[in-house]
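Quick note —
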Amino acid sequence: MERSVFDSRLRGGAWFEGAEALIGRGARSAPTQSLRPRRNHRTIFISDTHLGTRGCKAEALADFLAHNECSTLFLVGDIVDGWQLKRRWYWNEAQSRVVAEILAKVDNGTRVIFVPGNHDEFARDYAGRQFFGGKGFAGIEVAFETIHETADGRRLLVLHGDRFDGVIACAKWLAHAGDWAYGVALRWNDLLFQVRKQLGLPYWSLSAWLKHKVKNAVEYISQFEEAVAAEARKRGVDGVVCGHIHHAEIRHIGGVLYLNDGDWVESCSALVEDARGNLEILRWASPSQRHASLGSAEAAVPALIPA
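Predicted structure written out below.
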C-alpha cells in the first residue's frame, strides 16, 4: 500500500470504496493457519484496536481472532485509527493478518457488524449503507449504533461511547493533544516490554497503571460509565456495550448492565457471550508475550484468561 493512496481515501471520505482493493483482497486469502484449539462463542465484541498505529497489539489480536469463532462479531469502534493515519503512516504485516482474520470470518458465515468510533468517524457516513452486492462492505455491516439480543433475551445497546466523553464533545483539539500524549505513553510501554521480555517477565502496561492511579482519570472513567448507563436506561434496554475509554468492565449501574470490552493497545481484552447468554471479559496474550514468560510446551496453548 502506498501512503498517498490510502491517505487520500481517508481525507476524501471514500475509504470504504478503496479499502478492499488496498488491504482486503491481498489479505483475504491468507488467514493464520494453526492446529491449536479454537474456542466457540455466540458473540464476540472487540473495540479500540487502533489499526494503523504502533501501539496496536496486532500480533495478539490476530492470534485471538484465529483461535476464537463466533456467530456474530461486533467491532465497537476505533478499529482503524484515522487520526493517526492522517498524521503518520504505519501499517505492518501483523495488522494485515488482523484484516485477513476478520474477512475469513465473513467468508465463513460470521455476521460482522462495525459500529464506528471517533478515531474511525469517517465510517459513520456509511452507516446503514450496503456495499459489494448487498453484503455490506467486504461483508461487514456498518451501523452508527445497534441493539444486540443475548441468548437469554436481554437487549443490549451497542455503541462506541465517544459522544459521552466531554473532551470529545466540547474540545476536539484537546482530544487530539491527549491522543498524542497517550501515544508517547504507549511507546514507553513497548520499550518497557522489551526490557521485561529480556528479564523473562510478562507484559505489563505502564500507561494503564498510570491511568488507574491518577485520581482524575479514575473519576473520568466513573463519570463516563455512569453517563453511558444513564443513556441505556433512558432507552429502556437491559444493558449497554461500549469501548472508547480502554477500560474493560462488567458491572451493574443503576439497574443497567454496563459492559466495556476494553482495547487492544493495553489490556488486549474482548467481551464474549456463550450459548446461554453468559457474558465475560477475556484477556489474550500474544505468542511473543507467552514465549517471554512460559516454557515452550506451555507456550503452545493460547492464553485465554477470564478477567
